[in-house]
Structure formats: structure tokens, C-alpha cells
Design a protein that fits this description.
CATH architecture of the largest domain: 4-Layer Sandwich
CATH topology of the largest domain: Metallo-beta-lactamase, Chain A
Shape: globular
Number of helices: 14
Distance between the termini: 20 Å
CATH class of the largest domain: Alpha Beta
Number of strands: 20
Helix content: 25-40%
Largest sheet: 7 strands, mixed
CATH superfamily of the largest domain: Ribonuclease Z/Hydroxyacylglutathione hydrolase-like
């Protein structure tokens, strides 16, 4: 129903034990045709859905949950504790962005409103990892996906079968959060494939690439733009720049965190330090603030954001949105992309049709906030900052379920990937693990026998 042959709009209907359960219900993102799908009717009757389970708080996984309530859903939403807290701020921000779009284009309609959002938040149930719960006779447990704070693999035990929904799998080892949890047994697996065609490189390589970008900008006395997602990538960047600053491995450079949403998300991180991995907990215990360092300025207001333009170079600007689809990064791109001394650094996935993808793919003339902008700045990408597992990690995660031949998964469904990527991963899994792999089409149904 969503996230098939694409990387957004995650939404899957699971039926067992007389219950209809949605796994995620996210917004479609990307080009106009993709975004238009958010306004289409659901392929099911929302009134008949018993529950929604959210794997994590990214909008492409939760952004249509309030819409379910608009169309008569009256059940519960289930997630981990951090996912609820983060979902609250991300959904509020999404509503703000949707209202802005309606003001600019009155022919557009809100997908959902404040009433729908409040109904969703008031119907939310929260659990810790490994805290089992039941929806009727369907037994469910959250495992740590290692993707972002609170992200979960969903383990479902129903009608004598174990079904795993991977959600988005992490890219370990990464700072702050725990590594992706191992699943040792499953009858059926529904697995993401976002980066199923590539290898990200090591943590050491990505740190070296970040240091090199910072050094280059200092030498050029330029501006480094980093479009960053409010969750995980921003916090990892702050953590790693903090490490470089504390070790005196980079020159003094002004760093601006210009994302109100990322600032709110970072405050939620402080609340859930028990979810951190041991190295991060040890740093916190030592008295160091892992998200603060000399030279960092946090800009909350629009006026403070505009003042960044007058700040001396060199400078680094971390701002949302991560795919340059909105937010404060647009103003900075408008100001700085035409200067060859500057650099734009991509550290997250860029969906087809987004401004970020166009810049990353080498377009030299782009339209930003109604103006044509020449892209003369250097364009770089560090894939090691991706919060998604690459091909080797996806294969290794699946491989642990194949250690006992008689208990190998009967079928693996590949979702959350562009078609050519799904095809590459399909062939790799079949060749390496000898598993039965299916790449489903939108709204295709399967009986798990």
C-alpha cells in the first residue's frame, strides 16, 4: 500500500487472528506526483483498522496517521516511548508546513488538521524495547532497529508464525544509539532496501571525510552548507564535530545549528539517555555535553537565522530540511550556492524529485523560493552518515536468520527502495542466502502460508 518501489509512504496492512493492523502510515515525499498520493483515498476502510504500529518517527512512516482518524479510525497507535515524543514535534511541524503550502496555493487542501493530530496523539500507547504487548491474540514486541532514537523492528507472533517488519534498519556502528538488534528466527520478513545497491564505508572514513570538508572550508574561508534531517544525522554531526573540537583536530570555525525542529529533537535526546550506547553514556558521565562545543551557535528565531548571513567566514550551517524540500536551508542555499568557494555536503538520502536530489545529481541551475540559482559551490556527499544499512549490512542482518537451515525464512519481501535498487538486492539475497524473495507491487496481497 505504500513504500513499494519507492522510499516513502510506508504503510502495510497485516491481517491475523481477526485483527487488521497497519504497520506505519507515512507521507509520500518527492516530486509532485508522489506528494499527490497523500490526497488519494486509502486503499482500505480506515474504520475497519484495529491498530497502527509505528516503527519510528520519520514522517514517511507516520505522516498519514492523523489522516486515518479523519476517515474514521478509532483504534490505538503503538510505538516506543521516544518515537511518541518525536512524532509529536514532527507531526506538529508537518502541519505547519502543510498550512504554509495551502496559504501559497489555496487550491491545495490539508490532508489532516489539528483535530486529527490531537486524536492521534491522545490514542497513542507507548512501550519499551522487549516489552511485549498484544492486540487481541496477536503478540507484538519491539526490537531495536538502530536507525534513529526509538526506532523499532516489529516482531509479530500470530497464528503460529513469526513475521518481522524491519522498519528502517540502522547503519552500525554509529554514535549515540545502540547497534541494530539481531533477529535469529522468522518465518516471513518484510525488509527495507533503501541502500541495497551500495557500500557506505567505515565510520573512520566518514569522520575523515567530515574533517576534510571542515578543513577545506577553513582554508577557502568559505561556507559549508549541510542540509540535515532533524533526527539522528544532526545529533551525530554535533557529536562528531564536538569530538573533533575537543581533540583540537580542526581549526576554530563558527558552526550554526539553524533548525528549530532539530533543536527540539535534540532536547528529546537528553530525555532518553538510557537509550544511548555505552560510549555516549560514558561521555555524558564524564560531564561533557555531547551536543555542544566551542564555536556552536543555536539559532531559534527567524531573526537569528537571518543574522547568520552577516557572520564572518569560514562558517558551517546545519539546517533543515534534509532534502532541501523546505525549511531554513533554502534561504542559505539561495545565498551561498553560487559561490565556488562554498560547499554543500549531503549526508542523507535524497529522494527523487527533491531539490536536494537535483543538486546532488549535478544540476547547475535550480529554482529556490521562486528564484533561479546557479550551483557553483562544490557538491559532496558522505554516505557513511546514512541512517540506513547498506547492502552488506542488510545481507548480514538477514543471514543471522539462516543459521539453522530448517528455520530459514520462507519468504522475504523487499520494500522501501527504488525499483532498480530492489532488483539488485533481490538478486544478491537469492545468490548469497538462497532465500525466496518477492518485490511486491503497490496494493498487492499475499497469504502467508
Amino acid at each position: 500500500m505504500g513504500s513499494t518501489n519507492r522510499v516513502t509512504g510506508s504503510c502495510f496492512l497485516f491481517e491475523a487472528e481477526g485483527k487488521k493492523i497497519l504497520i506505519d502510515c507515512g507521507l509520500f515525499q518527492g516530486d509532485a506526483a508522489s506528494r499527490g498520493k497523500n490526497h488519494e483515498p486509502f486503499a482500505f476502510d480506515a474504520k475497519q483498522i484495529d491498530a497502527v504500529i509505528a516503527t519510528h518517527s520519520h514522517i514517511d512512516h507516520i505522516g498519514r496517521i492523523p489522516k486515518l482518524f479523519r476517515f474514521g479510525f478509532a483504534g490505538k497507535v503503538y510505538s516506543t516511548n521516544p518515537t511518541y515524543d518525536l512524532a509529536e514535534i514532527f507531526l506538529e511541524d508537518t502541519l505547519k508546513l502543510m498550512k504554509g503550502e495551502v496559504r501559497r496555493r489555496p487550491e491545495h487542501k490539508l490532508i489532516w488538521d489539528e483535530v486529527d493530530l490531537n486524536n492521534a496523539l491522545n490514542s497513542w500507547e507507548r512501550f519499551d524495547y522487549h516489552q511485549p504487548f498484544e492486540i487481541g491474540n496477536v503478540k507484538i514486541e519491539f526490537l531495536d532497529a538502530g536507525h534513529i532514537l526509538g526506532s523499532a523492528i516489529i516482531k509479530i507472533n500470530a497464528e503460529g508464525k513469526i513475521v518481522i517488519f524491519s522498519g528502517d534498519l540502522g547503519n552500525p556502528p554509529v554514535p549515540i544509539i545502540e547497534d541494530t538488534e539481531t533477529v535469529v528466527k522468522a518465518d516471513f520478513v518484510v525488509m527495507e532496501s533503501t541502500y541495497g545497491d551500495r557500500f557506505h564505508g567505515s565510520t573512520e572514513e566518514r569522520e575523515a571525510e567530515l574533517k576534510q570538508a571542515l578543513d577545506n572550508i577553513y582554508d577557502r574561508q568559505g561556507v559549508l552548507l549541510i542540509p540535515a534531517f532533524a533526527m539522528e544525522r544532526t545529533q551525530e554531526l554535533l557529536y562528531e564535530i564536538n569530538t573533533l573540537v575537543e581533540a583540537h583536530r580542526i581549526e576554530n570555525t563558527s558552526v550554526f545549528l539553524d533548525s528549530p525542529l532539530a533543536i527540539k529533537a535534540t532536547q528529546i535526546y537528553y530525555k532518553y539517555q538510557n537509550y544511548f550506547d555505552k560510549p555516549a553514556r560514558d561521555v555524558v558521565k564524564s560531564g561533557d555535553d555531547i551536543f555542544d562545543f566551542r564555536g556552536l551557535t543555536i539559532t531559534r528565531t527567524g531573526e537569528q537565522s537571518r543574522e547568520i548571513f552577516r557572520a564572518k567566514k569560514p562558517k558551517v550551517i546545519i539546517a533543515g530540511s534534509g532534502m532541501s524540500t523546505g525549511g531554513r536551508i533554502l534561504g542559505h542555499e539561495l545565498n551561498y550556492l553560487d559561490d565556488p568557494n562554498n560547499m554543500i555536503l549531503f549526508i542523507g538520502y535524497q529522494v527523487r524529485g527533491t531539490l536536494g536530489r537535483k543538486i546532488k545529481d549535478g544540476e547547475k541551475l535550480v529554482r529556490i523560493m521562486g528564484q533561479e540559482v546557479q550551483v557553483n559551490a562544490e557538491v559532496r556527499e558522505i554516505t557513511g552518515y546514512s541512517a540506513h544499512a547498506d547492502q552488506p549490512k542488510l545481507i548480514n542482518w538477514l543471514k543471522r536468520m539462516c543459521d539453522i537451515e530448517a528455520e530459514k525464512p520462507k519468504k522475504v519481501f523487499l520494500i522501501h527502495g527504488e525499483p532498480e535498487v530492489e532488483q539488485i538486492l533481490d538478486e544478491k539475497i537469492k545468490a548469497d542466502l538462497k532465500l525466496n524473495v518477492v518485490v511486491p507491487e503497490e496494493n498487492e496481497e499475499f497469504v502467508l502460508g
